Amino acid sequence: MPQSKCLRLALVFAFTGAFSFWLPDVAVRAHSGPNLDSRHFWAITILMPLTFLFAYLVARKFAVRRMFRWTGPAMLLGVWLTGGVFMTLAAVVSGSGFLGSGVGLLIVIILSVIPVVTYILAALDGSLFALLEVTLGALLVCGVRASCVLLRSAPDKDGSRSLSKVA
């Protein structure tokens, strides 16, 4: 696959991951306004990972046809790099912050490409558990896949490499 096509697909999947993860947060915050309570936090914590998972499953089918192997990491990178933009948007639509400070808003958006800032903003926004669910879930899936590959490629007792059943 040409490098430009690979880069284009990575960007598409990054934006897909970002929009699928952060739009439920913006929608819940817009619906709740400044009256954010525990029901809204539960909705955020459940909806954000579910919409991300659904988008990932659809994107993975699309990526397999295009022979793109980095769908999950590209989508997760999009979540982490655009978090500040979407959380700022959520704060604006809920009427709970950033309405009058143009320079401060710009600084938050620029700094939000640093993952630690996204983590801190998610803790303030109420979406930290959802962010951790998606991130740790992706790491768990990656680890399970890697261990399955290692187990399949391990030599048998007689020294041959076959795809035999692992007990």
Provide an overview of this structure.
The chain has six helices and no strands. By secondary structure, it is mainly alpha-helical. It has one domain. The mean pLDDT is 83.
Features of this protein?
single chain; 167 residues; mainly alpha; 6 helices
Write the layout of secondary structure elements.
Elements lengths: L2 H30 L5 H28 L5 H24 L7 H10 L3 H11 L2 H26 L14
Brief account:
With 167 residues, this protein is mostly helical. The protein has six helices and no strands. It starts with a helix and ends in a 14-residue tail after the last helix.
What's the pLDDT, averaged over the residues? Answer: 83
What fraction of residues sit in β-strands? under 5%
Structural class: mainly alpha
- Please trace the helix and strand order, writing H or E for each element: HHHHHH
Number of strands: 0
Distance between the termini: 38 Å
- Over the alpha carbons, how many angstroms does the gyration radius reach? 19 Å
User: Could you say how many structural domains there are in total?
Assistant: 1
Question: How many separate helices?
Answer: 6
Helical proportion?
Answer: over 70%
**Biggest β-sheet: count, sense, barrel?**
none
